[in-house]
């Protein structure tokens, strides 16, 4: 007996949400209906796909292999349906996008007027968070993540890269002098990130090798707060180009130690769960952003 799409959808939803109850909510079905679909699938395959404990569900070795094939099958169906739907009507409805505050403010918000003019039927809900959010728990359709990706269960779309630079305000440099060598930073006030330790390894070639471990005079959990501290002359900071391009063009922040700075770029990716009802909206948003941000 062949497996059905209903059974594959139930299996994927249980894995993605972590429970049969949550999967039933996502699929708008009863808990018993999802449980029966999962049971039928395992019976047809003659294999246990999920190991049930009192606290959670875990994929078996057979389950991990079958999940990859399940995703490929359902994704292919979604893409086929999306292609037909896209030809029939323009994308419409609510699209929830989450990003860190600096990226939202400096990269996404300036593009919203043009996007809304192109897709007037899509209603954007823009949310910010400095930490990686759980897409399902936070009811998020697309999350913009900067740096290395960790969650392999999500689809990812590269949008752009953004170079890191060491910067300071002219007022700070006039008062404290401009560092001529990387070692000079030890005598300066440095502004660092209090939540992501890796962001405090600055891409500078010097006594410590190809990175400089910044010791903070000031620290903040938000890149935007770090930027404002630098703008007010509180110290030297290392930030991505996407949030400082305007500051550098206006001369409000200037690069220091340019000859010692390595060309290190942060990857910017959009991550999302594939969802047929949302796919045309997701595709429209990601295609637009990738073209404008490239």
Structural write-up:
The chain has 294 residues and is α/β, with parallel strands linked by helices. It folds into two domains: 5-87, Winged helix-like DNA-binding domain superfamily/Winged helix DNA-binding domain (Arc Repressor Mutant, subunit A, Orthogonal Bundle); 91-294, D-Maltodextrin-Binding Protein, domain 2 (3-Layer(aba) Sandwich), CATH 3.40.190. The chain is built from ten helices and 13 strands. The strands form three sheets. Strands 3, 4, 5, 6, 7, 10, 11, 12 and 13 form a nine-stranded mixed beta sheet that branches. Strands 1-2 form a two-stranded antiparallel ribbon. Helix 1 packs across helix 2 (20-27) and helix 1 (5-17) crosses helix 3. The N and C termini lie far apart (48 Å).
Short description:
The protein is of the alpha/beta class and about 290 residues long.
Could you give the topology of this structure?
Layout: H1 5-17, H2 20-27, H3 31-45, E1 50-52, E2 57-59, H4 61-88, E3 93-99, H5 101-108, H6 112-118, E4 122-128, E5 142-146, E6 155-168, H7 170-176, E7 190-193, E8 201-202, E9 212-213, E10 218-220, H8 223-231, E11 236-240, H9 241-250, E12 254-255, E13 265-272, H10 279-293
Parallel strand pairs: 3-4, 3-5, 7-10, 7-11
Antiparallel strand pairs: 1-2, 5-13, 6-11, 6-12, 6-13, 8-9
Helix pairs in contact: 1-2, 1-3, 1-4, 2-3
């Amino acid at each position: 007996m062949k497996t059905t799409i209903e059974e594959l959808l139930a299996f994927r939803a249980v894995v993605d949400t972590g429970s049969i109850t949550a999967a039933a909510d996502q699929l708008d079905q009863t808990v018993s209906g999802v449980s029966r679909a999962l049971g039928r699938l395992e019976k047809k395959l003659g294999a246990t796909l999920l190991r049930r404990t009192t606290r959670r569900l875990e994929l078996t070795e057979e389950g991990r292999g079958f999940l990859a094939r399940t995703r490929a099958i359902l994704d292919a169906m979604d893409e086929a349906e999306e292609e037909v739907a896209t030809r029939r009507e323009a994308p419409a409805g609510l699209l929830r996008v989450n990003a860190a505050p600096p990226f939202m403010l400096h990269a996404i918000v300036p593009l919203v007027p043009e996007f809304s003019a192109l897709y007037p039927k899509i209603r954007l809900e823009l949310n910010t968070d400095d930490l990686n959010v759980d897409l399902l728990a936070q009811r998020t359709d697309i999350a913009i993540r900067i740096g290395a990706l960790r969650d392999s269960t999500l689809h990812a779309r590269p949008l752009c890269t953004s170079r890191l630079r060491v910067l300071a305000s002219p007022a700070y440099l006039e008062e404290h002098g401009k560092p001529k060598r990387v070692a000079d930073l030890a005598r300066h006030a440095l502004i660092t990130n209090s939540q992501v330790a890796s962001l405090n390894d600055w891409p500078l070639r010097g006594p410590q090798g190809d990175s400089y471990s910044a010791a903070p005079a000031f620290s903040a959990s938000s890149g935007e707060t770090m930027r404002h501290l630098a703008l007010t002359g509180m110290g030297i900071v290392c930030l991505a180009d996407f949030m400082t391009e305007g500051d550098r063009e206006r001369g409000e922040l200037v690069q220091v130690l340019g000859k010692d700075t390595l060309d290190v770029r942060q990857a910017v990716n959009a991550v999302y769960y594939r969802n047929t009802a949302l796919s045309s909206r997701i595709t429209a948003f990601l295609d637009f952003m990738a073209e404008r941000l490239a």
